[in-house]
Amino acid sequence: MSVDEELMDLKMDADLKKNILTTGTSLVGIVCKDCIVMAGDRKTTAGGQIVMDKDRQKVVAINDYLVLSGTGIASDIEMLKKLIRAQLKLKELKDHQRPTVRESANLIAATNYKNIRQPAMIPFTAGMMVGGFDADGDVELYSVEPAGSAKKVNDFDANFSSGMPYILGLLERMYKKDMTMEEGVELAVESIKASSERDTASGHGVDVFTITRDGIRHISKQVVEKVYTEHK
Fold first, then answer.
1. Is 22 one of the catalytic residues?
2. What pLDDT does residue 7 have?
3. For 217, phi and psi rounded to 5 degrees?
4. Which distant-in-sequence residues (6+ apart) come within 8 Å of 26 by Cβ?
5. Per the residue annotation, which of 22, 23, 25, 200 is the catalytic one?
6. Are 181 and 200 in contact (CB under 8 A)?
7. Sequence-ordered list of residues with C-beta below 8 angstroms from that of 228, at least 6 positions apart, any chain
8. Strand runs labelled E in 111-232
């Protein structure tokens, strides 16, 4: 490896570490007994300084069997969602069968890997969580880091969101194996609320999705309403 390549790798590592705490999002994915629960906050910021949007849904179903949530640069996340939706549909038409959740996660990982290694004035930054159910009914959750590796999640994850330290601390204490869907939903909501209390780039509400072998449900959309009262 040349000196220039080594310097580029060092810069890339530094950018990734910096973006862990500046991505301005709280995401959570929880593996329950017979389902996956995914949740996210609704605030978007510019550099963590200014609130740009108080009603941005960060967890979305991109088709009938797959839910994505993203942290990083908003434009990169939106473009990646559109690209992956189209590529999965093309693969389904070509292979005459639906891609698996694992294949979908690896496709996103390969795209991230390629994008982040192309020289650009603005580095590509998009970490993703991928949850879905396969044609045989299996439900799975994957975490895709901005650098392009995909990892199957067997318990819980918060990806590289800025709320990650607060979420993981809570989940380390509260998560238990084989949680029911109701327990998972409650824990996911509490995770987003906990991070919103301390992470300045997160907040303004919660979206919660459940994924089972029977399908995807957007079961909760909570928004924050400001109420000012006299302090006595």
1. no
2. 55
3. -130, 130
4. 40, 41, 158, 161, 162, 163, 164, 166, 167, 191, 192, 195, 196, 199, 202, 203
5. 25
6. no
7. none
8. 126-133, 139-144, 150-152, 156-157, 205-212, 215-223
Range of the domain at 118: 25-212
Structural domain count, the chain:
1
Residue with tokens 């067997």, as numbered in its chain: 154
DSSP state of 162: T
Q: Decide: 113 and 148 in contact? Cβ < 8 Å.
A: yes
**Quick one: how far is CA 27 from the chain centroid?**
5
- Given the structure tokens 């970490």, which residue do they identify? 127
Q: What is the pLDDT of residues 85-95, one digit of tens each?
A: 999 999 999 99
> Mind spelling out the 3-state secondary structure of 17-40?
HHHHCCCCCCEEEEECCCCEEEEE
Query: In this structure, what CATH number is given to the domain that contains residue 91?
Result: 3.60.20.10
Give the chain's residues under pLDDT 50.
16-22
Residue type, 209: F
Query: Residues near 135 by Cβ (< 8 Å), separated by ≥ 6?
Result: 97, 98, 100
